[in-house]
Structure formats: structure tokens, C-alpha cells
């Protein structure tokens, strides 16, 4: 076999590899006209090499932002260095349909690209090669992990029965309100409330109906102050923040809620049967309230007082005169 014969064989193999390799290969000249368009590009774009060759890249693919792509390619021509684009910055260079069977949930193919200089015999770079990698699997699984983390955070911070924050989810809101209102000198009040004799209610009506009551309380709170500011702090204990309300106004809001809780008994007028009622503690934010924790403790003390005074009532925490 002569040397020339082997070289021709090599080129033949190289052409085969170029055609069949599972990455996109595109050679462009300085005017961004296409010189090479391999099998990967043909099968994903449905444009044959015959049709692609000689065409201007930006005319053939109008979705490619010209200024951005030129900025990525010019250093390759001028400095003979490689440059890259990654899917996190721009999901794709060519808008190809996603053809992956497992990660088929995304409509398009995520791509990373490398742009490499092609030197001619006189060492000039008049052509560049754009290599396109399909990274859809990586991008989709990264998005799956992100979504799973989001769901996990939600599970950890939300109460599934009422849809309200749980204590862990609510604490950051409480701390934020505390910090913001203290810094700005704005009024804000905190209310905690606890269903009365709920053990007896559960004992009489069953746990499932007890759950329904808790869920209805959640709806009342969502309607009254919204999901962001209210929480189920524990079994039958709830909390809500009332920005802009001083102690007196917050007491009026708590009383309104207390009456709304009473309305959950409609249809249950029989004497000696447990009724749904709740006791409320209100604490306005005072200048000498040192922490969100102390604020919550003040509301809890007021709630304890309401319980001790006979339940189904509201107590406003009395700050020491300054
Ligand atoms: N149905 C239901 N009941 C719950 C849930 N979480 C806590 N409870 C019930 O709430 C009741 C709380 O009982 P206690 O702490 O004795 O309080 P109480 O009976 O409400 O009495 P006071 O608070 O003193 O008025 C218990 O019977 C718990 O089982 C829940 O998710 N669903």
C-alpha cells in the first residue's frame, strides 16, 4: 500500500467520523459563511450540507444574536484562542428541537459550544470551527434538582393541612417585619391564638372533623391577612402579623377574627356539645421590644392571660410605661 493511498484512506475515515460524530461541527469563514455542516447539524436542522454550504450563518439562523456571536468569535480569529458558550448563559446557539427520549420534557436542545481557530498553511486564521454539544440531559437534571430543592423547602416551611406557613417558615417573616418596622419606626402588631378545649372537640366530633376546623381557620386567615403573614405555629395555635396596626387596632382585628371563628359553629346550637372558640393574645411592637422572640413571648403571655380569664376572648399585652 503506498503512502498516498493510506492518506486518502485516512481522509475517508475522517470524513466518516465528521459525518457521524454525535456533536455538531460547523466551519465558518470571516464573513460567517458556512463551509462545513456535518451530519449532526443536518439531522437536527433538516438542512442538508449542500443547502447550508455557502450560506451566511445569520441569514440562515435568524435566532442567533449576531452581535453576541461575533463578540464570541472575533477573539478566535484575531488571537487564535478558543472561546466557549455555555447553556447557563444562553440555552442554545441553534434552536433545535429536543430529541432526547428521557428528558423530552423540554422543547429545545440545550447546547454548550466551543469555537476553535482553524489555521491555514500560512498560519492565518481565516476559518473557525464551532463545535455544538447537546447538554440537554445535564440541563434538565440540573433543573430537576432545583425543583426538588424548591419542593423540599416548601414541604419544610408549609403546613400541609392549612397551606399556611409552619413555625419554621413563618419565623423569617416575623424577623423581617420586626427588623423593618423597628428600623422605620412603623406600627406593627403580632397576634397569636389558640383554639379552646380542642381536645374535647376532637373527642366529641373525631379527629377528622377537628382537622376540618383547622383547615377552615386557615381559610379565615388567608382571607383576613393573606398567606404571607399568617401561620399555623403548632397543633391548634396560629399566629399573624398585622403591619401598620397599633395595639388597639390589632385588638379590633383579633376580635373580628374571634367572632369569625364563632361562626364556624353554625348548625351546632345544641347545649353541652363542644363549640369552636379561640383565645387571642395581641402584642404591639414597642420601642423597647428587643427581639422578634421577645415580641412573640409578649403575644404568648397575653394569650395565656386570655385563657386564664375564661377563654374565647382577646388580651392586649400591656407594655411597661417608658
Ligand atoms: N384534629 C386535630 N387535632 C389536633 C391537631 N394538632 C393538635 N390537635 C389537638 O389539639 C388538642 C390540644 O389539646 P390541649 O393542649 O389539651 O388544649 P385544649 O384542649 O385546646 O385546651 P386549651 O388550649 O387549654 O383551651 C389535642 O387534643 C390535640 O390532639 C391536628 O392536626 N388535628
TrEMBL record:
Protein name: diguanylate cyclase
NCBIfam families hit by this protein: GGDEF
Gene Ontology molecular function terms on file: diguanylate cyclase activity
Cofactor(s) needed: Mg(2+)
Catalysed transformations (reactions): 2 GTP = 3',3'-c-di-GMP + 2 diphosphate
GO biological process entries: cell adhesion involved in single-species biofilm formation; negative regulation of bacterial-type flagellum-dependent cell motility
Enzyme Commission number(s) of this protein: 2.7.7.65
TM helices/strands, residue ranges: none
First-level EC class: transferase
Organism, scientific name: Thalassolituus oleivorans MIL-1
Gene Ontology CC terms, in alphabetical order: plasma membrane
Chain ranges of the GGDEF domain: 186-319
